[in-house]
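Researcher: Go.
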Amino acid sequence: MSFYQMLALLSITTAGPRMLSVLLYERMTLPDWSKRWLQSIPYAVLGALIFPSILDVVPESPVSGLLGGLAAAFLACRKVNVMFVIFGSIAVVFVLQLIGV
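Model: Structure:
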């Protein structure tokens, strides 16, 4: 099997279920509780991907990374611009490293 044939088959295999789920989702009517649950999945996945890295920002001091993450969460909940959230969390970790936490 050539590279291009394999690439075409893999593309169809990957795109097929995604297209099918989009087409089926448009025709379905879901209860409100399931819509709310489905809308929260991206946040849960994002949190699961980010949290371990927060603890590894400074390997010898996971507390500073955790406090930086909490600062970012606080700023994000206050609906601050995303750039200020990023710079705010970096500043918190930087200051904590300066004072030796």
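Model: The chain has two domains: 1-30, 32-101.
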